[in-house]
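For this section, I looked closely at the sequence of one protein beside the tokens encoding its backbone, which the following lines show:
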Amino acid sequence: MLGLPDPISLRKPQQNRYEICGLIGSIITGFLYEYSILAVVIFAMTIQFISIPLFLIAHRKNIYIP
């Protein structure tokens, strides 16, 4: 693509953080899956419950979370 900017360089820094966190979560889930499916379920539920207050705080402060 001549003359066009690299799409990766146009990303916001926050997108890279989300991708890194997604990668880390996937790696942890993979290791837990080898150990026990119940461990995967507990990990996923724990992370989701931890995220609830974060979304409530963001909603209260009118912060957009993609």
